[in-house]
């Protein structure tokens, strides 16, 4: 193992778990790896397990989105990016167990992102039966009985995921998407009762969800919450986020701090900063909140990631495109070979191309994306070593030589 990046490769104890390093595979999935299957398809299984194999301490999967089960898929729903596995179907559970075991094989923790967003038609309860609660209503339209149904929906899904072998639940409370996040934001919360007004009131429902899940799953499962560290003008502030974390620090283990809006959180060609949201993590760390702080957005250059941990600006470095553009990213870190890392060029093709393009996963710098589950069958190992000369020293020739 390299001694070059001691901070990034240092273990971290969280509760009863010890993370093998500080590198996290954040909740992400290149588009169109998942087919129409209601369980993790082979491309998805291979992609996530390869992240563990490469060295990610936590691999956060996407697949419980409460929007597609038992329905015809409308074209406007991004089903390729938000698959919805049949959590309560034993046939699908078999594949979810295989996914957790594949990740555990490489001493990584398996996490599942639990999402009940604005595009969802129902929250699921009673082992797969819809609650009949639309999730796209205005915050003011939810009565107490309905709010409790949704709390119990979170609880049932979390406890089932724990039973299937997942070590962590990741709650997506960013960008005013899920109901708890819409309660938290002054931009979307226009209630006139105890759920609005002060920060404590607006965060009351999010705390209720997190506390109920913690009570149900116990302390031997990690809970992570993803939040926008601050919001656009009129929304909550960074200090409000710190207040919220103080409210829930007994119920969560990790906070992942994100951008005010979804698109900037995935730094693409219009963002010139390397890690535009590191200051959020640093601010929360300095506040003294008793939670593990994770940063996301633009982290790929290995020395930058190592230095951020070494300087105490964050505890965990959450990355998505680093693992997409470099299937061997963690291996490069362990071997101290940052010069061999292929930079993500922020073209955004892994996040979808154009509406007239074919539905296929593409990475501009990683040609095996979408073929990971086939590559071993496609490439024939040489029977004996051969000497090969590459003629041409341009970009194509140099890449061929590599």
What do you see in this structure?
- With 402 residues, this protein is α/β, with parallel strands linked by helices.
- It has 13 helices and 12 strands.
- It has helices at residues 42-54, 90-104, 144-163, 179-184, 199-202, 204-217, 238-248, 278-287, 302-310, 321-325, 329-335, 375-378, 395-401, and strands at 12-14, 17-19, 23-25, 58-64, 109-114, 124-125, 129-130, 168-173, 222-228, 254-258, 292-296, 316-319.
- The strands form 3 sheets. Strands 3-4-5-8-9-10-11-12 form an 8-stranded parallel β-barrel, surrounded by 6 helices. A two-stranded antiparallel ribbon has the order 1-2. Strands 6-7 form a two-stranded antiparallel ribbon.
- Helix 8 (278-287) links the parallel strand 10 (254-258) and strand 11.
- It starts with 11 loop residues before the first strand and ends with a helix.
Record field, number of beta strands: 12
Mean pLDDT: 89
Write the H/E string, N to C. Answer: EEEHEHEEEHEHHHEHEHEHEHHHH
Strand content: 5-15%
Distance between the termini: 23 Å
Largest sheet: 8 strands, parallel, barrel
Helix residue percentage: 25-40%
3D shape: globular
Given as residue ranges, the uncertain stretches (5+ residues, pLDDT < 50) are none
- What is the CA-based Rg, rounded? 21 Å
Which structural class fits the helix and strand makeup? alpha/beta
Order of the strands making up the biggest sheet: 3-4-5-8-9-10-11-12
Individual helix count = 13
Compile the SSE list and pairings.
Blueprint: E1 12-14, E2 17-19, E3 23-25, H1 42-54, E4 58-64, H2 90-104, E5 109-114, E6 124-125, E7 129-130, H3 144-163, E8 168-173, H4 179-184, H5 199-202, H6 204-217, E9 222-228, H7 238-248, E10 254-258, H8 278-287, E11 292-296, H9 302-310, E12 316-319, H10 321-325, H11 329-335, H12 375-378, H13 395-401
Parallel strand pairs: 3-4, 3-12, 4-5, 5-8, 8-9, 9-10, 10-11, 11-12
Antiparallel strand pairs: 1-2, 6-7
